[in-house]
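Subject: for your reference before the review

Hello V.,

The reviewers asked for a structural picture of the protein, and I figured it would be easier to keep everything in one thread rather than splitting it across files. Below is the amino acid sequence we used in the manuscript, unchanged from the supplementary table.
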Amino acid sequence: MRKMSPGSQVLNIGKSKANVTEAEEDHDVNFEDVAGLDEAKEEVVEVVDFLKDPEKFTKLGGELPKGVLLVGQPGTGKTLMAKAVAGEAGVPFFSLSGSDFVEMFVGVGASRVRDLFKKAKDQAPCIIFIDEIDAIGRSRGRNSMVGGNDERENTLNQLLSEMDGFDSDKGVIIMAALGYSQSMPEERYLYSRQALLDRMAMML
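And here is what came back from the structure prediction:
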């Protein structure tokens, strides 16, 4: 196996780490694979309809979804649900973790957000799924390096900026997973600023 040179790693440091499932590939996950969670499915059916035909959806007067926050304990099927939405809609699926945006180098997270959205726009309609999105916007005071909170804030602001910078009818939908906790209402507000994630499905 060819080993990557340090120079190559530096050049790629601002690039998105997303794994991509292309629309042409067979999506082997759909709603039938998600046992139970009927209420959560109802919350995301509209997203499937939109992704299948954004133009038709808007002509019918549907309110354009921007994103869905999937909230639940580990193992409740948040990732599976996101994959099922992509499978039902037959669209590309960009998958990565919130921790992939967080680096010790200032500006890397924001750069990865820009690169991710550029790739997603080129393949729209599509889904961007961010697992453990709380890694981007953790509250101050938690164990982190000096400057780490500022970098997370910059990354989150870039995410908000990208969402505001394109028309929803182009069909880029963000789905994000957040672990359920007692502080969830506060964190829910954090990720819904400026309607970043305007839908929420409880995976409980």
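For the response letter, the relevant points are probably these. The beta strands are 19-21, 67-72, 93-97, 126-131, 172-179, 199-202. Confidence is low (pLDDT under 50) at residues 1-11, 139-147.

Happy to draft the paragraph if you're swamped.

O.
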